[in-house]
Structures are given as structure tokens and as C-alpha cells.
Specification:
By secondary structure, this protein is mostly helical. Helices cover 85% and strands 0% of the residues.
Length: 226
């Protein structure tokens, strides 16, 4: 902790880099995964193909992908674009499966009711199904963000910036306090981001909070009915 407290300016600069490399792929991946998942949700063949492709992408080792990407997209080995592209692929692969599962969780009677009152397919998806899918999607985003934070730290092995740089520098100079400071900083970053996502998810789904508040009040009635 002493190393971290005496290098707060450096820690903040590395945190900004780490946030950029971790969160930008989440935004791009979500923008790709949500419409893709909604598009193939009702198409069995396209859904199976998408799910299989996502599974293959997610099994590729991150370090191998960081090193191989420059040969594919023409960037330099130490270019941040390699990490961003790789993590965008992982994020899209994980989130598209989460979108499919989230849409599956929407009750069929709700879809039927929305159709009955005149909602066409696209409007029903945007106004009914995706909002009801938010709790599942938020849970998936929490996993993705934590995974990306860890993977950006792995990128420090090939010289990409971020808090993971303290790991490699500490290992090379035999400074255990620097390594520990990197671990603590990464843990704090992951916990803060996770808490922010949880709060944002609750604010975006007020009906979930209302349902939880009503449940205790209804339980005595249900018990009495039995």
C-alpha cells in the first residue's frame, strides 16, 4: 500500500489508460451484440451459427490474439488498437450469447400481449423485450467488464499500458511492493466499476425495485390463502 500511496499520480494515469482499453470495447461490443442478438433470436440457423462462432472466438487465448492481430489488421505490435480490437471481439462474443438468453427469458405472454395491443416486431423488441432483458444484460456486462480489466493487465506482457505495467516492472526489478500495488489498484478499479454498473442497472429498471417492494407485502396474503 505504501508504494500505491506514494505514486498516486502514476496510478491515476495508468488507471485512465486501463479504463480506456477496458471500457471502449464494452461500448463497441454492446453496440454490435445487441442488434445482432435481436436479429438472430428468431432465426434458428443464424442463431446456431452465431452462437458457435461466439464460442470459438471466446476460446482464443488473449495473449495469442494480441500478438497475432498486428499481422491481420496491419497495426504495430505495441499499438493499443490490438487490445481494443481483441477485447471487442471477446465482448461481442460474450454479450451476443447473453442477449439471446435475456430475450429467451422474456415471458411469452408478455410478447403476445404486446403484439395484441398493436406493437409491430421492431417496436415490440425496442419497447418491451429489450427493457425486460436488462437485468440479464446488466449481469453479463458486469462479467465482461471484470474480464476486460483482467485481460488488459495481461496486455502489459507485450508492453501495452495500464495498471498491469506495475506487474511486469515489479517482476523485472524484483519490487514486490509495486506488484502488490498493481493488484490492489486493479481490485479497487474492478470493485468500483462493478458497483457503478449495479447502480446504473437498478436505475434503468425501476420496475424491478417496485416488484421487490411489493413482494413482502403480498407474502402474508399468499400465506393466508394457503
Amino acid at each position: 500500500m505504501h508504494y500505491l500511496l506514494t505514486h498516486l499520480a502514476t496510478a491515476w494515469a495508468l488507471t485512465v489508460v486501463h479504463l480506456r482499453l477496458s471500457l471502449l470495447p464494452v461500448l463497441i461490443g454492446a453496440a454490435l451484440a445487441v442488434p445482432l442478438g435481436a436479429l438472430v433470436h428468431r432465426a434458428p440457423v443464424a442463431r446456431r451459427l452465431t452462437t458457435a462462432t461466439a464460442g470459438v472466438v471466446f476460446t482464443i487465448p488473449s495473449l495469442a490474439l494480441f500478438v497475432a492481430l498486428p499481422m491481420v489488421i496491419g497495426t504495430r505490435i505495441l499499438d493499443e488498437a490490438n487490445v481494443i480490437v481483441a477485447l471487442t471481439a471477446y465482448t461481442t462474443a460474450l454479450l451476443v450469447r447473453a442477449v439471446l438468453e435475456a430475450l429467451d427469458a422474456v415471458p411469452a405472454p408478455v410478447r403476445d400481449a404486446a403484439t395484441a395491443v398493436g406493437y409491430p416486431g421492431l417496436r415490440r423488441m425496442l419497447a418491451v423485450e429489450l427493457p425486460l432483458s436488462l437485468p440479464v444484460l446488466v449481469a453479463a456486462v458486469r462479467v465482461v467488464v471484470a474480464t476486460n480489466i483482467a485481460m488488459v493487465a495481461v496486455g502489459s506482457v507485450i508492453g501495452i499500458g495500464g495498471l498491469g505495467g506495475w506487474f511486469t516492472q515489479g517482476y523485472q526489478t524484483d519490487k514486490s511492493d509495486q506488484i502488490l500495488a498493481g493488484i490492489v489498484a486493479l481490485l479497487m478499479l474492478a470493485l468500483v466499476l462493478d458497483a457503478l454498473i449495479v447502480v446504473a442497472g437498478r436505475l434503468a429498471t425501476p420496475w424491478e425495485r417496485a416488484g421487490r417492494r411489493r413482494s413482502p407485502a403480498l407474502s402474508p396474503v399468499v400465506g393466508g390463502a394457503r
